[in-house]
Amino acid sequence: MYALTIGIFDGVHKGHQYILKNTLQLANNLRFDPLILMFRYPPEKYIGGFEGLILPSWRRKQICEDLGFKVEVKDLEEVWGLPHEQYLEELMKKGVKAIVCGEDFTFGKDALGDVEYLQAVSQSKGLVVKVLKDLKSQGNRVSSSAIKRELKSGNIKTANEMLGRPWTLEGTVYEDRHLGFKLGFPTANINVWEKEKIILPKFGVYIVKGYVKGRSGFLWGLMNVGLRPTFNEYKKIPKVEVYFLDFFGDLYGDYIVLDVIDFLRDEVKFKNERELIAAMEKDEDQARKIIQKHYI
User: In this structure, are residues 8 and 38 in contact, taking their beta carbons and an 8 Å threshold?
Assistant: First the structure.
């Protein structure tokens, strides 16, 4: 038997953690197994207005599994046209005997299934339904959309506070034009969109803590996100690149996870490479001081 919660859980932020904690508690009390039905993308991916995910589905899945959940990842198209009555019946056939959700939870075709429906049929179906009120931070609802707004504004610390952990970007290092190496700041270009579309923060320079898969420990670094306007790159495709402090070596093909810790400055178009190098030297000096003062 399962105690279930359903959602996208993009970011697995504090609001989600509140739901997950309650689901685990209910599962434990009823001696059920905790289950998550997780959707890869939100509805905006299909109807328009989608900017990207906070975290890819495999990272969300791992976080939830580490908490003790069994996680099933699906695409919304798989259930998009399913009437809510049938939707619930199929869940119960899987062994779902309890559901934990928020006040605004909806499911099924045209979102006709809601909290009122679940509560109305719960007794006849032998279903336990637990409805939770929204979790708020400083009077504001903690939500994925709110976190995305903070990321797009460069407010990393605020986003991290709502997430309850540092926001991460991750992907495989690929070979590019070696521009950083030529400037004396060898950078690793990271493909953060290998499988799923991830949101990018405000273009600029960030302090990050990097983890290279297969290697122990971590590396402090400077991440640049943006269009590299000083070089007038014709494709105008945003890039994510990281310069690790005090690191010398080849990272091509390695998988890197970056904890994004702090925002340093906006992306700037410099007159020439000399000005850019001077700015990068200043960035590194400032970053070292911030890391030493606040994070070590």
Answer: yes
* Whole-Å CA distances, 9 to 46, 224, 242, 277: 17, 27, 27, 41
Measure the CA–CA gap between 22 and 269, rounded to whole angstroms.
Answer: 49
Contacts of 290 (CB under 8 A, 6+ apart): 207, 262, 264
Q: Give the whole-angstrom CA distance, residue 207 versus residue 184.
A: 18
DSSP 256: E
User: Measured between alpha carbons, how far is 225 from 223 in angstroms, rounded to an integer?
Assistant: 7
Does residue 234 carry a pLDDT above 60?
no
DSSP conformational letter for 53: B
Q: d(Cα 251, Cα 34) in Å, to the nearest integer?
A: 39
Summarised one tens digit per residue, pLDDT across range 179-189 is: 655 666 789 99
* Cβ neighbourhood burial of 270 (10 Å; 0-12, 13-18, 19+): middle
**CA separation for the pair 136, 184 (Å, rounded):** 46
53: which 2 tokens?
Answer: 């995910």
